[in-house]
Amino acid sequence: MEKTRLRKVSFVVAVLLLVVTAVLTFLTWRVSEHSEQRLLSRQMALVGSLLTSQAAVLQVQLADIAQVAVNTDANPAAFARFGATQLQQTGQSLSLWRMTDGQAEQLAVQGVDPRLPAEGAGALSVLEPTGELVILGIVPSEPDRLAYGLRPVDTDLLVYAESPLPDGGELAAPPDSPMAGLDLALYLGRTTEPEQLLQATGPTPVEGDTHRSEVPFGTTTVTIVGASPAHLAGPLSAALPWIVLGVGGALALGSAGTVEYVSRRRVVAERLAAENERLYRQQRGIAGTLQLALLPVVPELTGVDVAARYVAGVDELEVGGDWYDVIEHRPGCCVFVVGDISGRGLPAATTMASLRFAVRAYLAEGHDIEGVLTRLRRLLDVDVDHQFATVLLGELDAAAGRLRLVSAGHFGPVVVTADGARLVDCPVTPPIGVPSRVAPRATTVQVRGPATLLAFTDGAVERRGEVVDTGLERLRRAAEATGARPLEPMLDDLLETMTADGRKDDTVILGLRWTG
Amino acid sequence: MDRLTEAPRATLTVTADPDGGALVVGLAGELDIASLSDVAPQLDALLAREAQPVHLDLAGLQFMDSSGVTVLIRIANHFEPVTAGNASPVVARVVQVLGLADRFGLDGA
Fold it and tell me: Which of A121-130, A226-235, A265-274, A473-482 has the weakest average pLDDT?
């Protein structure tokens, strides 16, 4: 498991949350744009209606002047007097004309002199006696002028006016006007040619995301092109997509980081648990394997049946140091060993191993069982090893029915014959590992076959809270009860009986049967 | 681990005889392989003392297995002479079965 590599789940979480964030950001941006467009179009509609009402104002203004001229029969003095009240800005030109057979004749002028469109006074012939405001176009001048006129119904008089356009077309909008905050350009007609520009709030052509609308203006049309350089819905609305992106991104990375952290912690914990489990199994495995490997397969002997049972204690991690062995010493004679190391685990198993092989070695050297026991004492010291061993060594001459026994702190065997079962009483010397100045002396017992001998370790008979004699008597009776059965099932029966009430320690039962 | 925490603890106490006689070592509780570590520090301290007469008071000892016997044996190996008394039948029998009754002057109760 590489530490530096991002875990797949963290990556998925990060990507998923980032995708969600991206979608939300896009939606927020779309909503913001949409409301921006709506606000712009509403504001431009407002500008449009303002223009329309301005056209109406102009029409009323010109119609009033024309009416005064008609009523005074084109009296120049009256025209001048009334016209002066109507002139609102400098540079404006107001003039009264009479149309005769398609020819326009100037009757009076108020304000500056009219420039007239390129075709001169003839251009005025387009003015029909309809009483409508007619926009004649933009007259090039310094500054350009907007030319417009009106001819009342059923009259040959007409009023012609020129109003200067803002210089260069630009006109700063007052902050409370509908044009405030917008880039706006108003064009005369349906096109946006630069020469048709009426006025603008900034440089033209208008840049950015423009919105366009046309409103009627007198007999013509004004095209409005607008864009919003700033967000009409306010700075928060504009920043919202970025806020969503930022917060979402941070959440995604934070969540991925948290997932990464938690999952790494879990992996570490799992690894530790697995390691502990492995160490546990290893320790248990080494000791258990060692002990099982050291317990021999019972040999085939002439004249003697051999069977053995070994059961590990309840706490299987801590294997004990129980062992048994059967060695053919010389033809017709075998030596058997049952032993128990005080203590448990690997130290007990290794001590057991050295003692078991030592017994075989000393026998091979030709020593009798007393000699073997004496030499075993040199191999273990309770002060050094903090262990001692109990050992029962026996030599069986089946043909002669003679049994010789030496014990170092170990129980004597149970012998089952036709007369019943009895515990063989044999002198016990101190265990191996405990200094003993007494030389072991073997006990000799005559046992005529058919007979069965049972050697065992304390696991079979010891129970907490009872004297060991109780356990020994339980074993003796069980052996007597099942003594008639074949050796293998007999040992199974015994094991079942002796471990029925629960057992804590390792248990070995070794059985020898001879007919002799 | 439950077994360790639930098992009654074994204790080893050392009392000097006011009359200047044998050192009295009291063993109590249940002395088995699981509780062996409970008395290990006190045992090491005891075995660091000079050899002198010791009397083992086993009155408080309710149970002892072969691992527990190693404590008695190590004390017996270090001090001279070592006597024991007040052993319950269960404890005395364990010592006797191991062939160590003579060593502690226990008659099997």
Answer: A226-235
Q: Cα torsion for B42, B48, B54, B55, to the nearest 10°?
A: 10
Pairwise CB contact (< 8 Å): A435 & B77: yes
Distance CA A395, CA A336 (A): 6
Tokens describing residue A50: 């303002």
The answer to whether A413 touches A451, Cβ cutoff 8 Å, is no
**ipTM for the predicted complex:** 0.81
The Cα B101–Cα A355 span in angstroms is: 24
Which residues on chain B place their C-beta less than 8 Å from a C-beta of chain A?
3, 30, 33, 62-63, 65-67, 69-70, 73-74, 77-78, 89-90, 93-94, 97-100, 103
Report in angstroms the alpha-carbon separations of A107 from A79, A110, A116, A156: 9, 10, 15, 12
CA distance A74 to A60: 18
Q: Which pLDDT score, from 0 to 100, does residue A318 have?
A: 64
Q: Which residues pair with A396 in a beta bridge?
A: A334, A403
β-strand partners of A397:
A333, A402
Considering the domain B2-104 in this protein, what is its CATH number? 3.30.750.24
Residue A438 dihedral angles phi and psi, to the nearest 5°:
-85, 125
pLDDT band at A302, cuts 50/70/90?
confident
Q: What proportion of chain A, given as a percentage, has pLDDT over 90?
A: 28
Among residues A159, A155, A149, A163, the alpha carbon closest in space to that of A66 is found at: A159
Q: At residue A437, what is the residue type?
A: R
Please answer whether residues A94 and A110 qualify as being in contact, where contact means their C-beta atoms are separated by less than 8 angstroms: yes
CA distance, residue B86 to nearest chain A CA (Å): 16
Q: Quick one: closest CA in A to B31, which residue? A: A464
What is the fold, at CATH topology level, of the domain defined by A295-514?
Answer: Phosphatase 2c; domain 1 (3.60.40)
Determine whether A427 is exposed, middle or buried from the number of CB atoms within 10 Å of its CB (0-12, 13-18, 19+). middle
Task: Using alpha carbons only, give the angle A414, A415, A417 rounded to the nearest 5 degrees.
Answer: 150
CA-nearest of A209, A219, A233, A215 to A149 is: A219
Nearest-Cα residue of chain B relative to residue A465: B63
Tell me if A62 sits within 8 A of A94, measured CB to CB: no
